Amino acid sequence: MKSKTLKIREFPVVVEKDIDGSFFALVPSLQGCYTSGKTLGEALDNIKDAIRLHTADRAATKENVSKRKLVSFTSVEVLA
Fold first, then answer.
1. What is the pTM of this model?
2. 16-40: per-residue pLDDT in tens?
3. Other Cβ atoms closer than 10 A to 13
4. Cα–Cα–Cα angle for 15, 68, 60, nearest 5°?
5. Domain that holds residue 26
6. In a domain, 79, yes or no
7. Going edge to edge, which strands form the sheet with 23-26?
8. For residue 47, which of 66, 28, 63 has the smallest C-alpha distance?
9. How many domains does one find in the chain?
10. What is the torsion angle, in degrees rounded to the nearest 10, for the CA atoms of residue 48, residue 52, residue 58 and residue 59?
């Protein structure tokens, strides 16, 4: 039986505080990988679980898990 070596991988995560005080977290390089939590710590714990599940699901279907991608965060001014 083959043993699988686990790797430590790093993914950029965006966290946004919602109007109700909860936190929403998403991983831009893993489409559809997001979660939330009542606190920042809970959201970060939850996104780690979501990443593990997301990457395991991709590995099970032999889909490529993208390497770390550069994520740029900026702001723009808009007259609204």
1. 0.78
2. 999 999 999 999 889 899 999 999 9
3. 20
4. 95
5. 14-60
6. no
7. 14-17, 23-26, 34-37
8. 28
9. 1
10. 150
How many residues are recorded in the chain? Answer: 80
Going through 1-80 in order, the beta strands assigned E by DSSP cover 14-17, 23-26, 34-37
Least Cα distance to 46 among 25, 30, 28, 29 occurs for: 25
CB-hemisphere CA count at 13 Å for 65? 19
Q: Is residue 77 part of a domain?
A: no
Report in angstroms the alpha-carbon separations of 21 from 16, 24, 39: 10, 10, 8
Distance from C-alpha of 64 to C-alpha of 2, rounded to nearest angstrom: 20
Tell me the sheet residues that pair with 52. none
Residues 6+ apart with CB under 8 A from 35: 24, 25, 26, 43, 46, 47, 49, 50
Tokens of 34: 């997001």
